[in-house]
Amino acid sequence: MKLKSYLALTTLATTSSIVVVVTTAIFYLLQNAHINGIEERGLELARVLAHDPVVIQAVEAKNQQQPFELQTYIEDIRSKTDASFIVVTDQQAMRLTHPDVEKIGLHFNGDDIYPSLLQGVDHTSVASGTLGKAIRNFSPIINNGKVIGAVNIGYMYDRSINVLLEQFGKVGGLIVLVYLLGVTITGAFVFKMKRTFLDYEPEVIVHKFREHEMILNSIRDAIIAVDNNMLITTVNQSASKMLSMGIFGCNDYIQQPLSTYSASISHLVLSSKGKFHQGDFNIGKHSYRADIYPIKSAKGIKGHVIVFFANLDQSELEREVIYLKNYAELLRSKTHEYSNKLNVLSGMLQIGKHDEAVDFIQQETDNYQSIIRSIVTSVNDSAIAGLLMAKFNKASDLGVKFTIDADTSLSSYQKTSSEKFVTILGNLIDNALLAAWQNRLQATPEIQLYLSDRSQHIIMEIQDTGVGVPAELSDSILEFGISSKSDEQQNGVGLYLVNQLVDYFHGSLDWERTEDNTTLFSIYLDKDATQLL
After folding, report:
1. Which of 159, 225, 291, 390 has the most CB atoms around its CB within 10 Å?
2. DSSP 3-state assignment of 235?
């Protein structure tokens, strides 16, 4: 069954069910209200007649076997009301009046009169008498504190139902009109849905959406779509990697302001003024070229699509190749260094210098064992522990002393939180290592790390012996593309990502220059915003 048919049938079935339930409820309420109204009117008229002196005198005369005349008086009153009959009885339930004069003098038909004759109370009942089924209202006739008879006001049940059905017919017409209106609206909704979805079924729409997503992510150029409010509506994986180095997923950007991630792209879109536009901008120290396409519809501009890619000239490409070549040479030199150590160890073992070999291994591993012991005993999160070990090795290669505070303590966290902690610590430690190494001629290169989550906050403190943040960059160091580094590699992203993740955890990031001429970065994260194991 197609979706539009399913929705149409479901809507009609639901509407019909609601109409049936509402109609039944209205009929029930109308019936109760009508019968209650009859009972109240009947009892009120019965009480009035029960206190009428003419009625009281006639009943007293009947009880004393004296002549009386009451039929004409009562029938005259009945003709002026909507009552079907008015019957007055004496103390023995013998009729004094009746619409059928032949029934006068006979015993009242039914036992429902006795509560009024014997107990002196008003009451109502539905019972069948000589005229048929009726709603009968009784009130006792009391004289000198003694019950001397009763007044019965009756309304024929069939007549009451006919009146009720007549009223319900008017209400039913309105209900039918509302039902037809609901059917019309349903038809219009199905027609509108058919035009909106181009007669596609949900399965086809989902398939096309996934197909569109796969095609979008397969494009190497970065693509971002924004609405008229400059909020991101679509982003592919290439754009995600360029803006955040892949730390944030594509879904993290949705409904976020474009200016949060790149003010320069946002300015380019605003300057396009609803027309195709091209422009250049920078991310870090790399130049990019953007093509901006307006999204047009019959109602006007709905947003923009931004396609951007690296705008590299020949010299920049050459620098990239040289950088990669130098990095490869560095890896080969490190491989050669460790190969020499292995050769030395192998030679010692071959000539039988076992004790010297053990001393050589012990010398190489003492520092590692110390840092490993510190990490294992204080950091329970395996991803962060692995990061710290890797950074310790990097510090050793650079000749920078890496110290972990003895009071460090960190629990284990779920993968989503742990990965973000790794990004924060990795960027801060890398910055600290580089700063300490660059200032090695003025101070012994060293960094210190302190981690703690004992309180309601997760605390991360990284201290280095570098020269600190330049004064001219202190107010903008956390912005995208701003960096104190002077080399040609892409930078200005690390602290930007750290700040984004700190905001994600509802935390704060501060830095200061200490009395020991060191730079201290302090981060406080809200533990409630993390996912603790």
Report:
1. 225
2. strand
